[in-house]
Design brief:
Elements lengths: L10 H11 L16 H15 L3 E4 L3 H5 L4 H17 L3 E5 L9 H18 L2 E3 L25 H12 L5
Parallel strand pairs: 1-2, 2-3
Length: about 170
Amino acid sequence: AGFGLARNESWPALLGQRLQDTGSAYTVANASISGETTAGGRTRLDGALKQFKPNVVILALGANDGLRGLPVKQMRENLESMTQLARKAGARVLIAGMKLPPNYGATYTRDFEAAFAAVATQQHAALLPFLLEPIAAERSAFQNDGLHPVAAAQPRILEHVWAALKPLMR
């Protein structure tokens, strides 16, 4: 959603600009809402699919579920449902995984991280294991809250997403 950034600074906006600059027929419809959980995304996805009729859907949800300590089983079910909905609508799906800080406990963090891969495998979706991988170890890549990337980090996130997304854009 680009929390704390101007709308044109987020990696989805940069993706849209890249597609436009390269003359791609693809466009970006960013249906993100800052602070959204998978339950909220699940509630809104059907309407977004009908409105935008996408060929590719990037599901970059789950971080807020984890940060709130919500049940991993619930998050997984929501991701499964959203992937199924998108695929039924004719879209290819990229699931962007997330990791949590270790203070959530070894079992919870392991199960949380594994849920993204499990859904991708089960639903035959593409997987980007960790959305923030290229910047995760750099404190300066994050806003003061330590959670949301700064504008300067967005191009690096875009490059990471692009590598996983490009094979789905046929």
